[in-house]
Design brief:
131 residues, alpha/beta, Rossmann fold, 5 strands, 18% strand
Length: 131
């Protein structure tokens, strides 16, 4: 079974998108999914590894994440920030794995962003004018 680990430096382990959408979809398709988060939680379920990231320096967070990655031995690491990528790349130097950078929160949701509609409309108008 392929093991996937979400390495979340700025998201709690039970983040709606990570826990209820991506983790659930991957689990339902046969992957073993774990979450490492630098945000502590009161309730920890199986395959959730949370630590108090605020008490670590950026280098300390990377070291702690790498330590946890070595315990989990994931085949795929999904990272939420450049800091998570540094940790994953460090781990990858010793263990063969794939790294995915998930940057979806940097882009507005079509549903939630009125700006998306304005930009899309504005771009259509400017393309029409330039033609």
């Amino acid at each position: 079974m392929t093991k996937v680990t979400f390495l979340a430096m700025v998201h709690p382990p039970y983040d709606e998108r990570i826990w209820f959408h991506q983790r659930l979809a991957l689990t339902e398709t046969g992957y073993h999914v774990s979450v490492i988060s630098a945000m502590p939680v009161n309730v920890v379920e199986e395959d959730v590894y949370a630590f108090e990231g605020g008490s670590y320096s950026p280098i300390g967070k990377i070291k702690k994440a790498v330590e946890l990655l070595h315990q989990l031995h994931p085949d795929i690491i999904i990272c939420d920030t450049p800091l998570a990528i540094f940790a994953a790349k460090y781990y990858q130097q010793k263990v063969k794995c794939r790294i995915v950078y998930d940057v979806t929160e940097w882009y507005p949701s079509k549903k939630k962003s009125c700006w998306f509609v304005w930009i899309k409309t504005h771009n259509k108008d400017s393309h029409t004018q330039n033609s």
